[in-house]
Amino acid sequence: QVQFEESGGGLVQPGGSLRLSCTASGSSFNFYLMAWYRKTPRNERELVATVTRDGVENYAAFVKGRFTITRGNVRNTVFLEMNNLQPEDTAVYYCNARAFSVSVLYNSWGQGTQVTVSP
């Protein structure tokens, strides 16, 4: 069973930066796509960014230009570099993946990592 483990969150002031990391275990192959989601205090899950195995990136409009998603050199690792963080970025951040281009997200979610942006 695939499991996701996120880390790197914390408390930062507005304008600050954080780098989130995610490692997925339980797969013998490289996922087609890895993604970062976040669950806001309003309990809404939002797609933040995705990156394919070939390095094609996509971002939600609300983070474009501030966040960068990258795949790691280790299989099925992904990072999210977050700059110029704002209070509205406060959320629990999760990663997930699609095994193949026609796959849906895995049902299993990790514990997430809390990002809090506050003066």
Could you characterize the architecture of this molecule?
The strands form two sheets. The chain has a six-stranded mixed sheet with strand order 2-10-9-4-5-6, with no helix packed on it. With 119 residues, it is mainly β. The chain has strands spanning 3-7, 10-12, 18-25, 33-39, 45-52, 57-59, 67-71, 77-82, 91-98, 113-117. The protein has no helices and ten strands.
Which SSEs are present, and which pair or pack?
Blueprint: E1 3-7, E2 10-12, E3 18-25, E4 33-39, E5 45-52, E6 57-59, E7 67-71, E8 77-82, E9 91-98, E10 113-117
Parallel strand pairs: 2-10
Antiparallel strand pairs: 1-3, 3-8, 4-5, 4-9, 5-6, 7-8, 9-10
Low-pLDDT runs of 5+ residues are: none
CA-atom Rg in angstroms = 13 Å
Share in helix:
under 10%
Beta percentage is: over 45%
Sheet bearing the most strands, described?
Answer: 6 strands, mixed
Number of helices: 0
Going across the biggest sheet, name each strand in turn. Answer: 2-10-9-4-5-6
State the separation between the terminal residues, measured CA to CA: 40 Å
Number of strands: 10
How confident is the prediction overall: mean pLDDT?
95
Which H/E pattern describes the elements? EEEEEEEEEE
Structural class: mainly beta
